[in-house]
Amino acid sequence: MTQNQVNLTLPDSLLAAAKDYSEKFGYKNVQDLAMECLRQKVFEKDFDEDFTEKELELIDKFIDLTLSRQDLLVGKKELDKVLLR
Hints:
Radius of gyration: 15 Å
Helix content: 55-70%
Shape: globular
């Protein structure tokens, strides 16, 4: 498989958050996190993009709160248990 390089410019706060997330959730680096995010967005067909503006605001608020309070960070299994009931 041919691999191509892509350069991204990120604000300092997003890069710092991505580095923290990568470390906490077992990604080798920010590049692997970005690749996984792109893979999910591009190839997973069952992703529902029909969120309302209010739902998107709540999701953003949840992410911000989670990143600011480390005690709320959980793994994928724990999050799936709560969200997929």
